[in-house]
Amino acid sequence: MPEGRGYQRLKSRTSLEEILEVATEFERTARDFYTELAPKVSKQIRYLVEELAEEEQRHYDLFSQLRMRADIVEQIKQSVETPASDRRFSDCIHLPELGDHPDDQAVLQYALGREHAAMEQYQSLAESTPGGPIRDLFAFLADEETQHKNELEKRYYEVVHSGGV
Question: What is the pTM of this model?
Fold first, then answer.
């Protein structure tokens, strides 16, 4: 194998531990963002933003608990293929400035983008991670993020097309 190709393959791999760190930070930043955003949004979507904050907290807790399990110490050292969606997922850690009175449509668009990035990332990780608790968690989160995205799309349609924005 040519040297450059081997380097590219290694470069496209990362440890599960690094992935778990990024995913934990992804969930933490989302939780904090939605928690701070809730009192600023309209009453029409406040409950939704509060639910998003709670969901992100649950995901953060799942990652935190998983990383402390003694039975996965060896597994998190394993190297896996970096998902194609990794850049987009990592970019979501950087939060937008929506101001003191963000409009519902901007909030919903941001949330939809974030849920979509998470769904893609977790699906890809579930496919590339060896069987076990980490793979199970990624599969579970991929399913949850898909459900969240579908719910947000319905809500977005209701808000935007009912003249709510």
Answer: 0.77
